[in-house]
Q: What sequence folds into this?
């Protein structure tokens, strides 16, 4: 992983049955950042220094990603939320503010429902919950960007096709999911490519998507139980699979009691990378009175 970022410390520990990797920075009330696909903790590099001026920032690699262990099972979002709980307990954090992007927002949603006393507020970034996608999925939606949900769900085949072609695979998403296709430099893309070339890394991300049936069952069990803590949802207006496919604010009003929505113009899926100016300002405002 990139080691040029200053003020960031890397850690590992055996937690919830797997070896977890996370980075930390700053001091103050704890703020956890959960990345999505196809990224790692590195996707938060433009937020960590800013938030670390006021907060203790914790950015883990999720199960199956980056430098965290990549087991063959445990990718349902309840288990992945429990990974995060184990990290909280290890670090002595009773209650946190949580920011999740993409897959990290799915883990965050399950965290907010299963561990209501451990979360004070939640930012869900460019995410439509799994249950909602399942209830609306059709050929049109697949063409808008969800085709790979089905592809990654096929056992073994994606790993075989992607092996040795990680750069082509990942660059497709970084380019097509961004308002500015050249948003990420070749050097930044190379950081992700190295992460996804690790043994088991492609399988780990595939298993994350293959857990969808379990995730949907979990989501349906408590669909009528709204998230209690305040929620901020942020999304890129120009991403075909989220901002252009759904009324994002309305979707999240169906999941939480207190929701505010912020669409970002001229922005694709990787909001925190493409428009860090807007994302950082909105997160700081949302966390203004977070005192731990």
A:
């Amino acid at each position: 992983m990139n080691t040029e970022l200053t003020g960031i410390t890397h850690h590992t520990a055996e937690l919830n049955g797997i070896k977890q990797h996370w980075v930390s920075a700053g001091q103050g009330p704890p703020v956890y950042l959960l990345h999505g696909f196809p990224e790692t903790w590195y996707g938060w590099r433009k937020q960590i220094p800013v938030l670390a001026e006021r907060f203790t920032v914790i950015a883990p690699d999720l199960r199956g990603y980056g430098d965290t262990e990549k087991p063959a099972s445990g990718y349902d979002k309840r288990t992945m939320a429990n990974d995060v709980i184990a990290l909280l307990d290890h670090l002595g954090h009773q209650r946190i503010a949580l920011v999740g992007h993409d897959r990290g927002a799915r883990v965050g949603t399950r965290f907010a429902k299963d561990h209501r006393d451990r979360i004070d507020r939640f930012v869900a970034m460019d995410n439509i919950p799994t249950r909602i996608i399942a209830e609306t999925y059709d050929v049109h939606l697949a063409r808008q960007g969800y085709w790979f949900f089905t592809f990654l769900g096929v056992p073994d085949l994606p790993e075989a096709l992607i092996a040795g072609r990680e750069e082509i695979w990942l660059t497709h998403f970084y380019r097509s999911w961004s308002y500015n296709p050249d948003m990420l430099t070749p050097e930044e893309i190379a950081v992700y490519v190295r992460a996804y070339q690790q043994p088991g890394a492609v399988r780990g991300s595939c298993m994350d998507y293959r857990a969808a049936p379990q995730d949907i069952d979990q989501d349906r069990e408590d669909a009528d139980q709204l998230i209690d803590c305040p929620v901020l949802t942020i999304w890129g207006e120009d991403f075909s699979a989220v901002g252009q496919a759904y009324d994002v604010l309305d979707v999240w009003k169906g999941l939480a009691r207190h929701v505010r929505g912020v669409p970002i113009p001229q922005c694709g899926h990787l909001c925190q990378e493409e428009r860090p100016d807007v994302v950082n300002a909105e997160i700081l405002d949302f966390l203004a009175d977070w005192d731990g």
About this structure: The mean pLDDT is 96. The CA atoms of residues 96 and 106 lie 17 Å apart. The chain is about 40% helix and 15% strand.
